[in-house]
C-alpha cells in the first residue's frame, strides 16, 4: 500500500479547533442548488427627464420619516393584534387571555346561532375599537392591582367595565364583568363581605334582566344573607339590607306572576315570600303592593277569606298613604272577592267606595270602570234602575274619553240594562189583554219609546167593547 | 474508512457532510456519507447520523435501472415519502437537542432537515422556515448572534412573502426572534416579539395550550432578567398551570384506560413527542429552581410545580423520581388550605405505589 498522503494544507488548523463550531462559521447558509445569485446593478437613469424623476423620488423619500419596526407592524397588523401585542409586551398576559377568550366565545356563539339569527349581523367587539380600548385600559388596571393583591381595586376596575358596557347596551359583556366582579369580591375579606354583597346584587340584577329569575333569586338570597346583620352599609341613602329586601320582593313577585298559570301552588309560595320580604323592608307601599298581589293570588286559588284579609291590608295602607288609585284598586278587588263569595251587599258597598274615590281623584278611566262594575252587579241583582243609571254614567264617561273598546262594551251593557228595566212593564202589558196595552205595545213597536211605566188611562168604551167581545 | 480524494473516480468530488470540504473519511455503515475528518464524523453521528444512517443509503444510491414507467414513478413516490419522514425526524431531533441544551449537536440535524426540505419543497418554500428557525436557535445558544440573525432574517423574509403562512410557523419565528433580542440584551424588542409569538400561538392553539406556554416562559425569563419579579412570577404561574393541566390529563388518560390495547396510549392527547418531552423537562425544572430559590415564595406555587414534575416523571416511567417530587409536593402543601389539591396529590401518590 502506498504511504498515506500528507493532509491538505489547512486541515491541521481545524483539527485543533472544536469541530462543530467551525463549519457553522464557514458556511452561514447551507449550500444552495443552482449556483450563486448575483446582485444586478441598478439601472442608472438615462435621460434628463428620468434623472429629474429620480431626484424627485429621492427628495420625497427623504421627507418621509424613517419607520421603526413597531410602526410598520402597526400598519400591517389588525387593530386587535396590535392591542394584544401592547398588552403582552407590558406583561399583562391574563388580560390578554381574558380578552382573547371573550372574542372567541362571541364568535363561537355567533357561529352556533347561525346566519339566520340577529347575532349574525351584530357588530362584534373585535371590530369596535373604542370598546377594545376600554377593555384594555381597565383590564390592565385590574391585573396590576391583582398582582399586588389589592382586590378592591380589581373589583372597581371590573365594575367600571360592567357599568360602561351596560350603558353602551352590550348586555353580554356587562354580565360577564358583573360575574367576574362577584368572583373577585369573594377574595376581599377586609370589609366583612360588603363588596361580595354588592357583587351578588349586581349579578342578581343582571340575571333578572335577562329573564333568568330563579338564578337571580338565588343571588339575591345570598345578598340578603350577607347584608342581614350590617345596618351600617349604605348606598344612596338606602341600607343594603333594605335594598336586598326590595329586590327579593321584586324577584319573588315576578316569579309568582310567571308561575301563576302553570303552578298556582308554588306561585302562592313565592308571592308569600315576596310579601314577607316587603314587610321586612319597612316600605309601606311595597308591603301593600305585595299584599294586593297575594290577595289576588289567593282569590284565584279560591281562598276568599285569606284574600280578603290581604286585600283589606292593602286598602288600609293605601288609605294611610292617601293613595286614591290604590284605594280604587283595593275596593275593586275586594268587591270582586265579595261578589264571588255571594255577599252582594258588601260588594256594592266597596264598589260605591270605589266610585267615590274615583270621582274624588278625577280618574275618568277608573270611574268608568267602577260604574261599569257597579252596573253589572245591580244588573245581577235585578235592580235595573240603578244598573241602567250606572251604565249610562260609564257609557258617557267612556264616550268623553273616546276609548272605542269601553264605549262599545258600555253601550251594549247599557242597552241590556235598559231592556231589562223595560222587561217588567213589557211583560205586564203582554199578559194584560186589554186594548190600551196592546196599543201601547204596537206603539212601542213603531216608535220604541219606553212608556210601559205610565199608568193605564181609564178604561174607555172601546176596551169595554173588547171585553164584551170576549164573553 | 479512510479515502483519498486523489483516488476518486474522475469527475466525482466527495465532500464533507458538514463543511463541504474534500472528504477523507467515509461512514462504514451506510457508505454514502463522507467527512473531512473524524471530528466531523463524530459530531454528525451524535447529532443526527445515528438515526438516519440506514435511510440515507436508500436515498443516496444512484437510481437503479427500472424498465417501466410505472416502476420509476413508484420509486419516486417512495423516495418522496421517505424524504418527508426524514424532514420530520430530523426536525424533531434537532428541536429535542435544543431543549436539552445541546446546541452544537442540534446543528447537524437542522442542516440535514434543511437539505431534505430544499430537496422536497424547493428553495423559497415556507416549509424551510422551521429548519431555519432551529439553526437560528442553535446559533443563539452557541452565542453566534449575527449568524442567528441571518438565519432568522431568512425565515422572516420567507414568512413575509407568504401571506397564507400558518400561525404556528409565525409563532415559532417570533419566539426565536424574541430569544435573539433577549440574548442581545434588547429586552423591549424581545418582549414585543414574544408577544407576537403568544398572539399567533393563541390564535392557532388557544391561550392554554402547551405550545403557547413556551412564549410565556421566555417572556417570564425576560421579565425576570429585567428584575420585574411580579410579572415574571405571574407568567411562571401561568406556564406551570398550563403544563400541570396538560400532564394531569395525560396521567388521567393513562391510568383510566385499561392496559390491554397498547396503541391506545398514542392518541393525540395521551402523548408527548420527544421535543415536547424535552421542553417539559427544561421548562418545569427551571421553574422549580427559580421557585426554590425565591425568598418570598408562596407554598402553593412550589407545591404545584412539584406535583407537575412528579407527573412528568411518572409519564416517563421513572417512578422513583416521581415519588420523590410527589412527597415534596405533599410536604409543601401541608400548610395549604386548598383541600382539593391535597386530595389530588394523595391520589396521585397511590397511583405511583400501585405501578411499581
UniProtKB/TrEMBL annotation, chain A:
It holds the Pfam family TPR_1. GO terms for biological process: cilium movement. TPR repeats lie at residues 368-401. It is found in: Cytoplasm. Axonemal protein which is implicated in axonemal and/or peri-axonemal structure assembly and regulates flagellum assembly and beating and therefore sperm motility. PANTHER family: TETRATRICOPEPTIDE REPEAT PROTEIN 29. This is Tetratricopeptide repeat protein 29. It comes from Lottia gigantea.
From TrEMBL, chain B:
Gene3D superfamilies: 6.10.140.2220, Tetratricopeptide repeat domain. SUPFAM superfamilies: HIT/MYND zinc finger-like, TPR-like. InterPro entries: TPR-like_helical_dom_sf, TPR_rpt, Zinc_finger_MYND_domain, Znf_MYND. Keywords: Metal-binding, Zinc, Zinc-finger. Residues 16-53 form the MYND-type domain. Transmembrane segments: none annotated. GO terms for molecular function: zinc ion binding. This is MYND-type domain-containing protein. It comes from Lottia gigantea (Giant owl limpet).
Amino acid at each position: 500500500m502506498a504511504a498515506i498522503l500528507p493532509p491538505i494544507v489547512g486541515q491541521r488548523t481545524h483539527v485543533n479547533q472544536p469541530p462543530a463550531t467551525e463549519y457553522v462559521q464557514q458556511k452561514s447558509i447551507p449550500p444552495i442548488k443552482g449556483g450563486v445569485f448575483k446582485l444586478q446593478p441598478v439601472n442608472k437613469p438615462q435621460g434628463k427627464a428620468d434623472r429629474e424623476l429620480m431626484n424627485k423620488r429621492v427628495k420625497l423619500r427623504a421627507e418621509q420619516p424613517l419607520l421603526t419596526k413597531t410602526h410598520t407592524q402597526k400598519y400591517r397588523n389588525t387593530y386587535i393584534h396590535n392591542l394584544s401585542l401592547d398588552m403582552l409586551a407590558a406583561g399583562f398576559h391574563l388580560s390578554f387571555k381574558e380578552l382573547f377568550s371573550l372574542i372567541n366565545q362571541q364568535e363561537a356563539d355567533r357561529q352556533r346561532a347561525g346566519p339566520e339569527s340577529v347575532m349574525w349581523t351584530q357588530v362584534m367587539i373585535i371590530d369596535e375599537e373604542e370598546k377594545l380600548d376600554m377593555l384594555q385600559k381597565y383590564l390592565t388596571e385590574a391585573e396590576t392591582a391583582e398582582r399586588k393583591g389589592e382586590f378592591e381595586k380589581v373589583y372597581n376596575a371590573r365594575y367600571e367595565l360592567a357599568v360602561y358596557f351596560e350603558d353602551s347596551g352590550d348586555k353580554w359583556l356587562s354580565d360577564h364583568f358583573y360575574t367576574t366582579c362577584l368572583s373577585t369580591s369573594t377574595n376581599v375579606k377586609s370589609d366583612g363581605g360588603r363588596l361580595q354583597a354588592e357583587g351578588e346584587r349586581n349579578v342578581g340584577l343582571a340575571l333578572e334582566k335577562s329573564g333568568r329569575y330563579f338564578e337571580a333569586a338565588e343571588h339575591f338570597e345570598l345578598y340578603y344573607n350577607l347584608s342581614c346583620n350590617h345596618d351600617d352599609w349604605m348606598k344612596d341613602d338606602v341600607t343594603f339590607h333594605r335594598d336586598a329586601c326590595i329586590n327579593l320582593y321584586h324577584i319573588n313577585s315576578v316569579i309568582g306572576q310567571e308561575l301563576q298559570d302553570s303552578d298556582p301552588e308554588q306561585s302562592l309560595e313565592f308571592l308569600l315570600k315576596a310579601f314577607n320580604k316587603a314587610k321586612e323592608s319597612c316600605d309601606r307601599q311595597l308591603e301593600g303592593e305585595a299584599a294586593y298581589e297575594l290577595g289576588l293570588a289567593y282569590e284565584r286559588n279560591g281562598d276568599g277569606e285569606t284574600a280578603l284579609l290581604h286585600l283589606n291590608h292593602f286598602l288600609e295602607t293605601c288609605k294611610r298613604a292617601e293613595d286614591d288609585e290604590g284605594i280604587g284598586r283595593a275596593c275593586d278587588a275586594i268587591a270582586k272577592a265579595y261578589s264571588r263569595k255571594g255577599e252582594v251587599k258588601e260588594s256594592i258597598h266597596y264598589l260605591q267606595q270605589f266610585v267615590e274615590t274615583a270621582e274624588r281623584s278625577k280618574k275618568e278611566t277608573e270611574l268608568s270602570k267602577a260604574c261599569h262594575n257597579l252596573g253589572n252587579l245591580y244588573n245581577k241583582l235585578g235592580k235595573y234602575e240603578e244598573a241602567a243609571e250606572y251604565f249610562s254614567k260609564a257609557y258617557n264617561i267612556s264616550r268623553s274619553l273616546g276609548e272605542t273598546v269601553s264605549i262599545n262594551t258600555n253601550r251594549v251593557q247599557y242597552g241590556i240594562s235598559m231592556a231589562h228595566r223595560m222587561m217588567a212593564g213589557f211583560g205586564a202589558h203582554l199578559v194584560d189583554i186589554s186594548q190600551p196595552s196592546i196599543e201601547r205595545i204596537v206603539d212601542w213597536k213603531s216608535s220604541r219609546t219606553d212608556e210601559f211605566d205610565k199608568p193605564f188611562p181609564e178604561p174607555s168604551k172601546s176596551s169595554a167593547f173588547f171585553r164584551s167581545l170576549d164573553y | 474508512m479512510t479515502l483519498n480524494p486523489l483516488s476518486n473516480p474522475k469527475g466525482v468530488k466527495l465532500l464533507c457532510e458538514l463543511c463541504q470540504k474534500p472528504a477523507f473519511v467515509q461512514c462504514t455503515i451506510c457508505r454514502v456519507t463522507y467527512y473531512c475528518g473524524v471530528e466531523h464524523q463524530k459530531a454528525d453521528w451524535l447529532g443526527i447520523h445515528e438515526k438516519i444512517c440506514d435511510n440515507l443509503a436508500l436515498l443516496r444510491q444512484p437510481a437503479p435501472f427500472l424498465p417501466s414507467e410505472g416502476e420509476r414513478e413508484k420509486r419516486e413516490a417512495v423516495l418522496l415519502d421517505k424524504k418527508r419522514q426524514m424532514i420530520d425526524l430530523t426536525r424533531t431531533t434537532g428541536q429535542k437537542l435544543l431543549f436539552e441544551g445541546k446546541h452544537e449537536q442540534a446543528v447537524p440535524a437542522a442542516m440535514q432537515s434543511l437539505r431534505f426540505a430544499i430537496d422536497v419543497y424547493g428553495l423559497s418554500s415556507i416549509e424551510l422556515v422551521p429548519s431555519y428557525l432551529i439553526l437560528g436557535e442553535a446559533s443563539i445558544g452557541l452565542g453566534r448572534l449575527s449568524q442567528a440573525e441571518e438565519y432568522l432574517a431568512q425565515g422572516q423574509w420567507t414568512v413575509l412573502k407568504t401571506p397564507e403562512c400558518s400561525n404556528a410557523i409565525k409563532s415559532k419565528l417570533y419566539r426565536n426572534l424574541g430569544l435573539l433580542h433577549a440574548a442581545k440584551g434588547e429586552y423591549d424588542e424581545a418582549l414585543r416579539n414574544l408577544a407576537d409569538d403568544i398572539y399567533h400561538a393563541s390564535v392557532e392553539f388557544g391561550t392554554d395550550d402547551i405550545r403557547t406556554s413556551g412564549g410565556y416562559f421566555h417572556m417570564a425569563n425576560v421579565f425576570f432578567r429585567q428584575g420585574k419579579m411580579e410579572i415574571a412570577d405571574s407568567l411562571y404561574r401561568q406556564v406551570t398551570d398550563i403544563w400541570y393541566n396538560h400532564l394531569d390529563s395525560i396521567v388521567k388518560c393513562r391510568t383510566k384506560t385499561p392496559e390491554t390495547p397498547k396503541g391506545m396510549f398514542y392518541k393525540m392527547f395521551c402523548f408527548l413527542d420527544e421535543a415536547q418531552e424535552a421542553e417539559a423537562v427544561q421548562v418545569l425544572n427551571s421553574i422549580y429552581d427559580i421557585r426554590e430559590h425565591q425568598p418570598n415564595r408562596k407554598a402553593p406555587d412550589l407545591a404545584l410545580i412539584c406535583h407537575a414534575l412528579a407527573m412528568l416523571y411518572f409519564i416517563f416511567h421513572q417512578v422513583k423520581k416521581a415519588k420523590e417530587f410527589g412527597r415534596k409536593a405533599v410536604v409543601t402543601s401541608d400548610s395549604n388550605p386548598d383541600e382539593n389539591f391535597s386530595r389530588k396529590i394523595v391520589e396521585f401518590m397511590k397511583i405511583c405505589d400501585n405501578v411499581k
